[in-house]
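Task: sequence in, structure out. Protein: Calcium-binding protein.
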Amino acid sequence: MRIRATATAAVVLGTVALSALAAPAAQAAPAAGPKVTFSNVKIGKTLVVGASGRASFPVTYTVTKPASLSAKSFASGPAIYRGATIAKPSDLFVSENPGTCKAPSATVLNCTASLVFNVTDGDLINSESGAWKVGGVAVNVSKDGLTWQGDLGSTKLLRQAKLTTDAAPEPVKKGRTITVKGTLTRANWETNKYAGYGAQTVQLQYKKAGAKTWTTLKSVKTTAKGTLSTTVKATADGYYRYNFVATSTTGAVASAADYVDVR
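Result:
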């Protein structure tokens, strides 16, 4: 989540983390937090977010603490961030709520949490897609104090893509030409809509009826509006689809398959 001035008590973890970590350099360093360390953080390699609504991604992590430190005295959660230092609020996303933890021993907590992006409310802008680092935050519950640990992993925050395929005519005589059209769009986090993704290379793939694997027939480039069109010769009954490989800002997607009956 992106912390705002209207944050409620439920997101105090993120509020405290943001106010402390993204503070101006001249400001005093935050008070010492709980003596904990983070490890074994597991988060998706890619976090693909659509044009609107809320997107939630589970995260698991381990907290190691002194046996004398009560688990109820602090709250913890995962974060993603950009840069060597967190210079501004847009460089940091913190879990919406503190993690839920179980204690297999007096010194170890196994925790689960979620990173939530509310796109409709303006959590994301398009320039924030790309590579992010993973960190962990812990704050004292009843007093000031924050513990931050970075370099716990990496992930990619990507704009969702959508892709269509329409092969025609159906049915078609063997040896005749099939025209395969489609459109590649991707999420615009600022308008909350999907727009054509131009100048992108997309694979046209074919799977013969009864087969299990797809074969790439050719590569096709989208127009400025994201549209696709190419032709192939009809050989046998089978399925056609377009397949888009992820870029540094946009997630991968394969269209639904379109079956063509060849007679």
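Residues 3-11 have pLDDT under 50 and may be disordered.
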